[in-house]
Amino acid sequence: RTKIRTHHLQTMKAEGERWAMLTAYDYSTARLFEEAGIPVLLVGDSAANVVYGYDTTVPVTIDELIPLVRGVVRGAPNALVVADLPFGSYESSPEQALATATRFMKEGQAHAVKLEGGERVAPQIAAITAAGIPVMAHIGFTPQSVNSLGGFRVQGRGDGAEQLVADAIAVQEAGAFSVVMEMVPAEIAGQVTRKLTIPTVGIGAGAECDAQVLVWQDMAGYTSGKTAKFVKKFAAVGDDLRGAAAAYAAEVRSGTFPAEEHSF
Ligand code: KIV
Ligand code: NA
User: Domain of life here (predicted)?
Assistant: First the structure.
């Protein structure tokens, strides 16, 4: 398998070939996803929720994310690994954004970075890409702004459609190689996808995006509690793992494990 680079994603858009992106936060899952042929892995700041147990992505720090990026890069040598810039690490200025992106490239060995926002972060995207770092943008519902967006709500409805299109064009013009659209009406996401020359990656944005992304724990049924409407569970890994832990503990208690074949 060849190493995936941004131009491959561009070619896939040109040829109408859809692709899947997944999050990953460690070496072992990154290896499995690479073996499954997933071309792009995102070390999302959703690690805040699924790795660190925070309620939102707001508190997670650069120092909490960089070690996760290193593990994913080692586990998936052919995937394009994108690292999310966390809340507070890029909004102030293009200089701040470039300094943070550089840390993720140098210390995390990521291949690209992702940040949230449209028009308002275009200068940041321009500064990072000018330094030779590919940027994936993220528009529509942007979880780091949950407090100002009034909760987990679909974006780009009604009057919001115009702003969404403006944001999509702004990030493409600033140099982004791809853009995530989260919780956007399928019709608007389709319009944006046809309008842009860079690939769109949907999450809760319908079937007309060039690619799709899900948090892997959601995709694999490893998340506890209720999941969003846009999630489909392709496995029940959580039930399997809980069952395995319980079976192991039961065999230890009963003396069935370890058996003779596990002993020296
Ligand atoms: O952090 C994340 O997991 C994300 C994706 C869901 C797009 O930003
Ligand atoms: Na994110």
Answer: Bacteria
Distance CA 214, CA 218 (A): 7
Q: In the chain, what are the domain boundaries?
A: 6-233, 237-264
Ligand nearest to C-alpha 22? 1
The yes or no reply on domain 6-233 and CATH 3.20.20.60 is: yes
Q: How far is the CA of 197 from the centre of ligand 2 (A)?
A: 23
63 annotated as a binding-site residue: no
CA 235 from centre of chain: 19
Tell me how far the alpha carbon of residue 14 lies from the centroid of ligand 1, in angstroms. Answer: 25
Report if pTM > 0.80. Answer: yes
What does the pLDDT profile of the chain (264 residues) look like in tens digits? 799 999 999 999 999 999 999 999 999 999 999 999 999 999 999 999 999 999 999 999 999 999 999 999 999 999 999 999 999 999 999 999 999 999 999 999 999 999 999 999 999 999 999 999 999 999 999 999 999 998 899 999 998 999 999 999 999 999 999 999 999 999 999 999 999 999 999 999 999 999 999 999 999 999 877 889 999 999 999 999 999 999 999 999 999 999 999 999
CA distances from 189 to 4, 103, 192 (A): 25, 32, 5
